[in-house]
Amino acid sequence: MTEQLDAGLVARQITEHDGLGGPVGPDGGREVGRARRRREDARLITGRTRWTDNIQLPGMLHVAFLRSPLAHARITRVDVSAARSLPGVVAAFAGRDFDGEQGSLPCAWPVSEDVVIPDHPPMAVDRVRYVGEAVACVVATDRYRAADALEAVEVDYEPLEAVLDMTEALAEGAPAVHEAGNQAFTWKFSGGDVEAAFRDAPVLIDRTYVQQRLIPTAMEPRAVVAVPEGEGFTLYSATQIPHILRVMLALTTGIPEHLLRVVAPDVGGGFGSKLQVTAEEVLSLLLARRLGRPVKWTESRSEGNLTVHHGRDQIQRISLAAERDGRIRGVRVDLLADMGAYLMLVTPGVPLLGAFMYNGVYKMDAYDFTCTGVFTTKMPTDAYRGAGRPEATFAIERAVDELAAELGLDPIEVRRRNWITREEFPYTTVAGLTYDSGDYEAATERAVALFGYDKLRAEQADRRERRDPVQLGIGVSTYTEMCGLAPSRVLGSLSYGAGGWEHAAVRMLPTGKVEVVTGTSPHGQGHETAWSQIVADALGVPFEDVSVLHGDTAVSPRGLDTYGSRSLVVGGVAVLAACEKVKEKAKRLAAHLLEAADDDVEFSGGAFRVRGTEAGRTIQELALAAFAAHDLPDGFEPRLDAEATFDPENFSFPHGTHLCAVEVDTETGAVRIRSYVAVDDVGRVVNPLIVEGQVHGGIAQGIGQALYEEAVYDTGGNLLTTTMADYLIPSAADLPDFVTDRTETPATSNPLGVKGVGEAGTIASTPAVVNAVVDALRPYGVRDVPMPCTPERVWRALARSGGGGTAGPPGPGAAADGTGAAETAGGAQ
Amino acid sequence: MPTVTVTVDGVTYEEEVEPRLLLVHFLRDRLGKTGTPVGCDTGNCGACTVMLDGRSAKSCSVLAVQADGSDIVTVEGLASGGGLHPMQQAFHEEHALQCGYCTPGMIMAAIDLLKDDPDPSEEAVRAGLEGNLCRCTGYCTIVRAVRRGARSMSGEEVPAP
């Protein structure tokens, strides 16, 4: 068997079982597709967890970091001597103390020729560029003493001007964040003849949307324990990327890679925020090396809000040219993306992940994308659930709603006139991606039915007619996205620093149990359960007989970790590929023991049988025989295990239709989500329970961006939203019960037919909610409400339009159709 | 340093503590009860919720000295005899957790909620758990789990979902 699985072959094998009904996995198994309760739960619901902060080791020290209170300043003096002399304090250091040792935090995605990657010392030496940047540290015998001693560190600063606004940052004479200036990079991409598409376009929609800055807010704060062990070090970290971290730490600190072990124990959520190589990881490791003792750091939530990388923060100008019948000719996007003060692991790549998605699910002749990355004196941005695709989807889905309003068409009808139809797959888009499969009609039809679309439209008309102070809005979002980060060749062509393959090992143990090693690194997704289901079907073994190992570079030496909805579509498929190799090997052994030709042996239900006879061996018997090694074919190594990697040839393209109904109180500006329906197509499903959970959580985070969340800096560059009291993530009381369903169009890019699901909900939901809010207010002349759509912002939008409250809408005649035309006329091209 | 005497999950401890020591750090760092995690520093997230003399309390907002003489139950002490508490079982059945970091606090808060309202409506659960934040689930399955747990705690046979 070749290193990589023949995707087409296995896909056909799966398809052949379709007629059997019910969930069908590889070889007709019944685990894939089943709503297995998670095996991970047992430890999590009983408190027998392994969070990094749980770790206590003999002689362990605690480090605390002093952080810059200024957004931009020269450091003129740091004096840690008073701190050093306090009880319990073992050491205290300033940035200069790490000269020649601390290196520069890595950026693995140099997106363009002109990209500026400034030096980024983990601890600032002579200049700080955002509030929260580490300037000194204290190491003490417990966390309270370390925190106390920070008070005794003296730092003198010479303040410089903060740079907060992207447009001002790019203006002539703006204070420079870095010597090379404030422009981090420019990146352009074009498909088709854009000039022609926009020339004399009968309809032009031109809008600017702001993707506010978000704080990812995984529930588990970051934590690190660095341990000197033997010749080398073990670093425990609440990270999504133990494998990437190991490579990057070796490159950054010079500690040889083979002497560095990285462990991601139980990790309490990430959403991209733990896809990073952090200053605290590097410095904890350096301190452990210097002091020869284990060093632990656990952030407080307020410290985390300041210094966990932020998400989004883009200004999007989107122009859409269309015919009067609603058909889209082309889309043009001009993007400003706030990098913050430095380029971290994939900071400049995030907007590029959206660059290929501004055309959404629609056909068009031309597309043009320009992005400028801008440095400001704020916390760097980087991946946050969806990374680039939520931004793109928001812009196109909002713009298409504006097009519908302009033309007086139903927003679903406008979408229908433009989307790729089910017969047209595989379809190569104007952005050059080939969407492998999809059925937008089916997902939308199902969503419309579940939502009761027509009935809600009727109620909306009635409320408008009655001038009800509480108006009903209906929001539509028909999304697709590119995920399953993967094709290594494509990532290479985009200048990404690594590949996108994934690795797995499957080992049959002598007792017939199965050990699976995966290079993915779960932090809530349920890989232990899902991978066990895949293996149970593939090898015909009981689900309970499989265990899944991960998150430790000593146990799972090869992998590229978990982000970008890649785990199942790349890593899960690698697990299946390894199972296929194990079966190939077992078949050879079975044929030998049964004295039959290889080709006469068939596998079914966990056993190999000679065709047409009852003579056979179970895979467990073969595992024992391979272990005993008493009677093996010539050249057969005495073990029944295999490794495999999988590197798909295409991205994964989940899609779906999300519908949201909101009630907007025009007197107070309050928005209440009344109902939310999501019909997603994520291809074949390994575990519907896990899929539903991913969709639910994704929707909630997208709603968070639409209605609640924003990282706010004041005019001096101080973060105002440092606590959970200020940065509002949705609570149970803020959200409705979501109605979810699925259509199932198998992916053709992997043998399981699966598509990514981790980010889909977040990508889809933000525009659905904001479209609903704006839809409620359209009769008042409101055409946009900036996110988050707080009561104040809704109220202000109404006040600006002269509507709202008991004044009521200007009357049915002036509804939707009337408002857009005037605006479009005023819109610049 | 003051001495506190507390019973945690059925075991009595007598420890000298700094007056400023938070109960959650006392539990985690001194007693090794790491089943109760810390999610924030402002009492907003509820991950650290424990039962303090029978009612839920956010242990990041209580000093260890304030707990002197108290009986504390953490998620580690909920179940007896190696099984699961009905609320733990319900969270498992309904897939009411993903990363699981908020789960101990969520389960403790849910059990406390039922003391006032043994059969809460969806709205009551949502309102009652407002002080416990989850970033993974979107809460739908948590709400289902709490209502399932409520029925099974009242002795009702609850079929698998």
From TrEMBL, chain A:
Which key words tag this protein in UniProt? Molybdenum, Oxidoreductase
Pfam families under this entry?
Answer: Ald_Xan_dh_C (PF01315), MoCoBD_1 (PF02738), MoCoBD_2 (PF20256)
Location of the Aldehyde oxidase/xanthine dehydrogenase a/b hammerhead domain: 46-161
Chain residue ranges for the region called Disordered: 16-35, 800-829
Residue ranges annotated as compositionally biased, kind Low complexity, are 813-829
What's the source species for this entry?
A: Planomonospora alba
Taxonomically, which superkingdom?
Bacteria
**PANTHER family documented for this protein:** ALDEHYDE OXIDASE 1-RELATED (PTHR11908:SF132), XANTHINE DEHYDROGENASE (PTHR11908)
Output this protein's name. Answer: Molybdopterin-dependent oxidoreductase
From TrEMBL, chain B:
> Which species is the source of this protein?
Planomonospora alba
2Fe-2S ferredoxin-type domain sequence ranges? 2-78
Q: What is this protein called?
A: (2Fe-2S)-binding protein
The transmembrane segments are: none
UniProt keyword list = 2Fe-2S, Iron, Iron-sulfur, Metal-binding, Oxidoreductase
Keyword Oxidoreductase assigned: yes
Query: InterPro entries given for it?
Result: 2Fe-2S-bd, 2Fe-2S-bd_dom_sf, 2Fe-2S_ferredoxin-like_sf, 2Fe-2S_ferredoxin-type, 2Fe2S_fd_BS, Beta-grasp_dom_sf, Diverse_Oxidoreductases
| Alphabetical list of PANTHER family matching this protein | OXIDOREDUCTASE WITH IRON-SULFUR SUBUNIT
Name residues in a coiled coil.
none
